[in-house]
């Protein structure tokens, strides 16, 4: 599978608890943190749920 680079660009403060947990499950903590992950259907669904907080690029 292809890899994607995800970067947290907006804060999770004042967001629903579900979105906070999704961001943490993706392996992101602070604003500006980034991670390369496999683009599996599970990860794609998590990214789609918090896409307004992330910046996504394909590798």
Question: What would you say this structure looks like, in words?
Answer:
- This protein is α+β, with helices and mostly antiparallel strands and 59 residues long.
- It is globular and about 35 Å long.
- The chain has a single domain (3-58), classed as Ribosomal Protein L30, Chain: A (2-Layer Sandwich).
- The chain has a three-stranded antiparallel sheet, with no helix packed on it.
- It has helices at residues 17-25, 41-49; strands spanning 3-8, 34-38, 54-58.
- Part of the 50S ribosomal subunit.
Number of strands: 3
Decide which structural class fits the backbone.
Answer: alpha+beta
Helix content: 25-40%
Task: Give me the CATH fold name.
Answer: Ribosomal Protein L30, Chain: A
Number of helical stretches of at least 4 residues: 2
Which residue ranges are poorly predicted, with pLDDT under 50 across at least 5 consecutive positions? none
State the end-to-end distance: 11 Å
Q: How would you sum up the global shape?
A: globular
Q: Classify the beta-strand content into a percent band.
A: 25-35%
Please, what is the average pLDDT?
A: 96
CATH homologous superfamily classification: Ribosomal protein L30/L7
Briefly, what CATH class?
A: Alpha Beta
Question: What does the radius of gyration come to?
Answer: 10 Å
Q: Sheet bearing the most strands, described? A: 3 strands, antiparallel
Total domains? 1
The sequence of SSEs as H and E is EHEHE
Strand order of the largest sheet: 2-1-3
Architecture, according to CATH? 2-Layer Sandwich
